[in-house]
Amino acid sequence: MKAMSAAQAARTRAGVAGGVITLIIMLVLAVQNTGPVAVHFLLWGWAGTPLFAVIVVSMLLGFLLGLAYMLSQHGHTTTPASGARAAKPRRRTLRGKRAAAPAAEPVAGPPAEV
Questions:
Q1: At residue 103, does pLDDT exceed 80?
Q2: What are the residues facing 50 on neighbouring strands?
């Protein structure tokens, strides 16, 4: 297992802290809304469902979908810093070639079909 840099560790701590704060806010919302509601989904309907249950199930589904997306993206990430560093020398090279190349003649348009 490779060690995390200080920046990665700080991002991880910030993400965990943000997740915990969001969880607390959502749980407070759910606990304060306990009245019965009617839930309709496609062809099904449930009457008298506690709003607390609807909120918690919605949170869990959102968490699971987010987790599935995150796991599907694992290993497919690139950091913007590395991409920017790799692009800078290329831009310098293109600028150098552009200055040395003769100017291209303007194109009149697409050729007419026969």
A1: no
A2: 36
Mean pLDDT of 43-59: 84
CA angle 83–88–94, rounded 5-degree value: 125
d(CA 51, CA 36): 6
The DSSP bridge pattern shows strands 36-41 and 44-50 to be antiparallel
Q: Given 3-state DSSP classes, what are the helix, strand and coil percentages for the chain, each rounded to the nearest 5?
A: 60, 10, 25
Return the higher-pLDDT residue of 26 and 87: 26
Helix (H) or strand (E) holding 38: strand 36-41
Contact between 55 and 30 under an 8 Å Cβ cutoff? The reply is yes
Those residues whose C-beta lies under 8 Å from the C-beta of residue 4, and which sit 6 or more positions away, are 12
**How far apart are the C-alpha atoms of 42 and 102, rounded to whole Å?**
65
Q: Are 45 and 39 in contact (CB under 8 A)?
A: yes
pTM value? Answer: 0.46
